[in-house]
Amino acid sequence: MDRLLAPHRRAHVVGDVNIHEVCERVRTLILAEFPRGLTLQRDYDISIPEFRGDREQLIQALLNIVHNAAQALHERIVAGDARIVLRTRVARQVTFGKQRYRLALELHVIDNGPGVPDSIRTASSSRWCRGARAAPAWG
Predict the structure, then answer these.
(1) In angstroms, what CA-CA distances link 2 with 10, 12, 57, 92, 127?
(2) End-to-end CA distance of the chain
(3) How far, CA to CA in Å, does 29 sit from each of 11, 59, 123?
(4) Phi-psi region for residue 106, left (φ > 0), alpha (ψ -120 to 50) or beta?
(5) pTM of the entire predicted model
């Protein structure tokens, strides 16, 4: 159905994925766009095994989130002290829906931005909430 509605989308390509390669690709792309004033720190758990997934979709999803964070850090980037941390961890005994998994990936994108403004904090849980006109949605 997705292919009928959006023929430009490619089919899912599922394979073995190293999450740190995904993070490094996103890090490279973000630093190319924001070469000054932004530090992208790594805090990786190197014990995380490869998993099955669509590498390109994971890159796109993470890129969207990190790019939104970088845009929210505009004032700090100008000041030269913007920071985003990419943190990976293993979570154990996690339940998604009704299925339990022995191991799961935790991927945190942490920034030193101002946070969600109080004026829209309650609405920010809505997937359609935007903090500013024509700004990207919250990650």
Answers:
(1) 10, 11, 14, 33, 20
(2) 26
(3) 23, 10, 30
(4) beta
(5) 0.79
